[in-house]
Amino acid sequence: MHTGSQQASVVGNSLYDQVKEKLEQGLFPQWIQTDPQIFDLEIKNIFGRTWQFLGHESELKKPGDFVTRWMVNDPVLMVKNEQGEIKAFLNSCTHRGTHLCTADFGNRKTFTCPFHGWSFNLDGELIGIVAGNKIYGEAMDKSEWGLRPIPRVESYRGLIFGSLDPNVMPLEEYLGGLKWYWDIFLTRSDGGMEVRGVPHRWVVNTNWKMTLENFGGDPYHVPTSHKSTVELGISPSHPLYSSFGHQVVLEHGHCVNVNVAAPGSSSPPYQGLPEEMWPMFERNLTKEQLEIFKKCTVIVGSCFPSLSFHCPIHGSEGHLHNYLTLRVWRPLGPTKVEIWSWFLIDKSAPEEYKEAAYKGYISSFGPSGTLEQDDTEIWVRVADASKASMARDKQLNYNNLLNYMMGMGKIEPDETFPGPGTAYPTCYVDYAFRGIHKYWFELMAEDLKKIPVQA
Amino acid sequence: MDAELYYEVTNLLHYEAFLLDNRRYEEWLDLLTDDIVYRMPVRVTREVRDGSDVVDDMAYFEESKVSLTTRVKRLRTTSAWAEDPPPRTRHLITNIMIEERMKDDELKVRSNFLVLRSRSHDIESEQLYGERIDVLRQVDGRWKIAERRIIPDQAILSAKNISMFL
Lengths: 455, 166
Fold this sequence. Notes:
The complex is a heterodimer. Chain A is of the alpha+beta class.
């Protein structure tokens, strides 16, 4: 280790310098992908300091409704209190740390620990201790032993987030320009979006960056990874079909792709949503948002570090439907991700449309979806091939660098694009990826400076 | 229940498993009635007092004969990467029980499934397991599957996708 610390002090020889240099060239050292040491630093520096999605307001309708969630490994109990406010606590009894509530959802007035019977109300206050006065006496101040709140909980138009960092910037500032794009689907209809049922949950042996990137900046994978749906006639046959539109790079690693139909072909207005809903869109959205929404086929992107969103027009059985799916990529290890996938649709959409859109989601992007199946297969292949000695060599002796160079220095931003962020006039560019990597690097920089390349 | 009927039912479910494990999907489709309702609701963790831990409002499969046929056609394309190279699957169907004769030509049948999947060079197998509740209907003297409700025991699936039929 003493050699290590000497090396670390030498300028030009820390991982910081290596990674910085490569990222600037549009290259991503492959060893980073699944490195266990990097993974631990990501949990601390990225997941410990940013905002993580906890759920949607429509999952908590009445006072006492609760859901249990995870912020990586921290169990979270999220409840609606008597005043209708949403609270989130560490789901762990303050007495001996027991995982307090292990149910996925339900309705309660109090949460009682099965270990010694301490109970907490919807505001997390400790309200009952078995044999309390007899054993602890009056010295026991119950107000000191309430459930520990998640340091920061804020929401944006129904999307609830938590942060472990009490000093994190406000959620709205963190989301920045992303809000403008989210508003297109979150506010287009009266009443907004609502979650149907519960999220799908399943585990895939890959790395969280892979999944975040896939939704964030990879329309380029669509014609190949999802070629089976092209062969079936579900997806368009134009080889560049997923390139048309704009890729937008936003602050804090966020990114959005707004796809449109190929030149010369058309797509139904407003992603094929029923005509009776159009007046709402016209009322609720700005002229610029409306213009984008009217022409787009897919809005897909990522909110760094672990939330993605996908609002497509998708065909099933000869009909086209739109829906919103939200994805949480919960890292369980360097090559393990628990996927949470929510289906949302406009509260005010006609009932039969909601049902058809739901079926469209199941057939395309649920765990059995004809598109989803092949994505997970390929994400696993990337992780599998990134675990070995050559890929993991930190000195890069094996040219173990991944190519994120598409469009670099060739494609200029489209200044006429009305939305916030830097918009490129095609989705076949790697600007979104490089934006993700840039913010990743910013949050990891201090620790990377301490690690020598030889480590 | 007579032994001959039980034999017919078990034979059908075993034959179905054989067709699926051998990727004879078109013949499998032929075991399903044209109006089949094929569903796999989501299983969750709930406390007993909160009621059922099966959420019917969300499903892994929500299929008709048409959508199942589309899935089979996909598997016959040149680019269904999840199934090409094909993972090896084994459908183990046990605890077959004829629960009810609903009509002369309709039976309610329960069975347990354990589906093991060995993919590529993976050393560990993936597995899905649970119960199936079927309605079998006699069509032209043959038992066919008219309804299937697949109840997984896993609230978090440990398989990376459901590219197989259950």
